[in-house]
Amino acid sequence: MSKVEKAVSCFEQGFLCSQAVLSTFSTDLGLDKETALKVSGAFGGGMARMGEVCGAVTGAYMVIGLKYLAQAEDSGFREKTYQLVKLFNDDFSSRNGSIKCKELLGCDISTSEGLQRARDQNLFSSICPNLIRDAAKFLEKIL
Questions:
Q1: pLDDT per position as a tens digit, 72-117
Q2: How many Å separate Cα 1 from the centre of its chain?
Q3: How many CB atoms lie within 10 A of CB 16?
Q4: Which of 43-47, 64-68, 69-73 has the lowest mean pLDDT?
């Protein structure tokens, strides 16, 4: 099973977008899966269901940070990380139109009405797996 498939499968098992992305790549980067799930747990729904930056995006940021910021002996570690995050943002935005959860879903899940609409229209199961796929595909390319 590819990393992309593992990330989507993790989401389909009930984990959040952020958890699915980070936990799929974490063990290869020295972070155990259980800790990855805990660390990324507050980032779902655009950061604690506030509809801000998509959990798949923040999960990808964490993976990039694990890979490159951990290499502090390299004087360009921060620049490389920032460049990769910018590349990721550009790629993700060009594919999906935004990095913001409420824009990606087309409703504001930080409100009870928006959350109910997302649930009624099955937006989490119809949209989020594709966002996780895009994030995981990008990470597979750069890691």
A1: 666 678 888 899 999 999 999 999 999 999 999 999 999 999 999 9
A2: 19
A3: 26
A4: 69-73
User: What is the DSSP secondary-structure string of the chain?
Assistant: --HHHHHHHHHHTT--HHHHHHHHHHGGGT--HHHHHHHTGGGTTTTTTSSSB-HHHHHHHHHHHHHHTT-TTSTTHHHHHHHHHHHHHHHHHHHHS-SBHHHHHTS-TTSHHHHHHHHHTTHHHHTHHHHHHHHHHHHHHH-
Confidence (pLDDT) at 78: 82
The domain limits of the chain are 3-142
Mean pLDDT score, 15-37? 97
112 CB-contact burial (10 Å; exposed 0-12 / middle 13-18 / buried 19+): exposed
Backbone phi, psi, residue 61, to 5°: -55, -45
Radius of gyration of the chain (CA): 15
Lookup: tokens for 13 = 């098992």
Amino acid 79: pLDDT: 86
